[in-house]
Amino acid sequence: MLLDTPSLYFRAFYGVPESITAPDGTPVNAVRGLIDMIATLVRGHSPAELVATMDADWRPAFRVAAIPSYKAHRVAQGDAEQVPDTLVPQIAVIQDVLDALGIARLEAPGYEADDVIGTLTHRAAGAVEIVTGDRDLFQLVDDRRPVRVLYTARGVRNLQVVDEAFVTAKYGIPGRAYGDFAVLRGDPSDGLPGVAGVGEKTAAALITRFGTLEALLEALDAGVTEGFPAGSRTRLVAARDYLRAAPAVVKVAHDAPLPAADLSLPAAPRDPEALVALADRWGLDGPLNRLLPALAG
Hints:
Radius of gyration: 21 Å
Oligomer: single chain
Strand content: 5-15%
Number of helices: 13
Mean pLDDT: 96
């Protein structure tokens, strides 16, 4: 089980009231919410291995070089991400709690959590479950292994299981084609423009017709005119430079440099004394007392 940790702690931050505080009054809503999410996931899915993936770089240079608008609207100052002031200090607490528990926490310099997930998925020999609220990771679903996304849009207690059939039913595309579809459609939330005039229906029709973005581009370059919805061929030709650059932004990496780590689900805390100190300092007894039995069981 691979956790898109930033996606989950942002969800916890906005889903749990800021009135949930430590003894000194510091908000710990994201910390407590994330711990409870992990407890629910472990109880419900009993993973043999669990990894909390992190963003070492929320806006990697290689993606900005390809598409300068990538996440540009979310830059605060310099190259820092806009993060609520009361969430920022909670991220360090989350990291400390995960480390004391012994839950593997992995990141890669110059890469996002998505890329860590992509790399671990690529390396995994068996089934993988990816927990995220980010549709970009739908590109990793693969029924053959299987690789599934547990999508948190409706909450961790009401997860949507995303497999190839889900992708096909929702978007009308082959089940493993979400990445190519997303390149064409674009994603305003990430500053990815897509092809002007090509929406979801046209993007789906193009991917269904040609199978992959690469095959679509080969058809364009070869002068093929059949199979393009009305007006779309002209738009695609005009967006040829974008279509060359965008896959580097949309496709998650499969080769991020990751340190060696024990990914096993910890049955007991790695550092019990540190965990007790964190529980006392931040008022985490309740959620930790729900998570620890789930881990042990």
